[in-house]
Design a protein that fits this description.
alpha+beta, 3-stranded antiparallel β-sheet, about 350 residues, Phosphorylase Kinase, domain 1, 5-stranded antiparallel β-sheet, 2 domains, single chain, 12 helices, Aminoglycoside 3'-phosphotransferase, Chain: A, domain 2, about 45% helix
Length: about 350
């Protein structure tokens, strides 16, 4: 395997005639922990080059198979015809070196995570995110090809079940039995394609029209465009993990900015409205119940798992997340609104 860097990428690309001999620039893209990701601007086109790495950049040791890049490439190719305005296009593939290139988001696109951390909350974006996820789940549930091609769970186990779920079992034994039941479900349920990393950091969005902590509503007819990236943990299995993971990341941002908790709550309401009103493959009440249980585990995992969030260093806030995750799991909460009621109780109290 030729391990690429931002210094060697252009020579690699020219050797394969993926770009011409003219001027070109390479820019490292951050935000993830598992791959080399570069934006390449050449005379021919602008695109993103991605190569998997065996060891992830996390506090705890974390390894995964290099060939997860193949799964990502193949899932992108399967979803691009279904969501051409959301899913990138695969341009080039070098399987010998665990590399592929895809079309780039618009040059002014920003991470939705950064916008949410800044308190810029677009409700139409939340609804659109729910709609897109409903399409991914619904189309794949009805298409045998997804089940046949993407049923292997090896990488998903390495990158999600083990570092998030089993680590919580080890470090938070008071919820171990509840988490064990969810792990069994994740290993056995085969219903639809689960993205596995459906979080705001993987949404590249236009810069907000109004900066400074806005709360925008707006019509979806005007569009809430975004590019969705990072499909390496995608698999055919239990897609309700996507619901819990997305909601966990919004709730964690409410913990970071408790004064805006009601706005983050409204954002998750918009997300669930977009998801549940645009086609589901099973009854919405069942999907909600299962998604809320994933929410409980994933809140705990982003504090005590292998890869904790970086934006909650304060121990009082971290302990509030722990209490919230335990309540969801130990009390058997099964509705988003009830989970947010628990969050309201935690976040409305004076900080220690």
């Amino acid at each position: 395997m030729t391990e690429l860097t931002s210094q060697t990428a252009l020579a690699y690309l020219r050797d394969r005639s993926w770009i011409g001999p003219g001027p070109a620039q390479v820019e490292p893209l951050g935000g993830g922990v598992s791959n080399l990701v570069l934006r390449v601007v050449s005379e021919e086109r602008t695109f993103v080059l991605k190569q998997s790495r065996p060891q992830l950049r996390t506090r705890d040791p974390w390894f995964s198979d290099l060939d997860r890049i193949y799964r990502e490439q193949e899932v992108v190719q399967a979803l691009a015809p279904v969501l051409p305005d959301v899913v990138p296009q695969v341009l080039f593939v070098d399987r010998d070196n665990y590399v592929y290139a895809m079309s780039s988001a618009p040059p002014d696109a920003v991470s939705w995570k950064a916008e949410l951390l800044a308190g810029s909350i677009d409700l139409s974006m939340g609804e659109r995110a729910g709609q897109v996820l409903a399409v991914i789940h619904g189309v794949s549930a009805r298409t045998d090809d997804f089940r046949t091609r993407f049923s292997d769970l090896t990488v998903y186990d390495q990158l999600r079940i083990d570092p998030f779920y089993r680590r919580v079992q080890e470090r938070r034994p008071e919820v171990g039995d509840a988490v064990a039941e969810i792990v069994v479900q994740m290993l056995t349920v085969k219903e639809a394609l689960c993205h596995g990393d459906y979080t705001p950091k993987n949404f590249l969005v236009p810069p907000p029209a109004n900066a400074g902590g806005s709360l925008a509503g707006g019509s979806l007819a005007r569009g809430s465009p975004f590019t969705l990236v990072d499909y390496e943990t995608a698999h055919f299995g239990d897609p309700t993990m996507d619901l819990g993971l997305f909601t966990a990341h919004i709730m964690l941002k409410a913990v970071r900015l408790p004064a805006r908790r009601h706005d983050y709550h409204r954002l998750t309401q918009a997300f669930w409205r977009g998801y549940s009103q645009h086609g589901t493959y099973r009854p919405a009440e069942e999907l909600e119940r299962r998604g809320v249980q994933h929410l409980g585990v994933l809140l705990l995992s982003r504090i005590d798992g292998t890869s904790p969030v970086e934006y909650l260093p304060e121990e009082p806030k971290r302990e509030a997340v722990r209490r919230l995750g335990r309540q969801i799991l130990q009390w058997g909460i099964g509705r988003w609104e009830d989970a947010w009621s628990c969050a309201e109780s935690e976040l409305s109290e004076p900080e220690a």
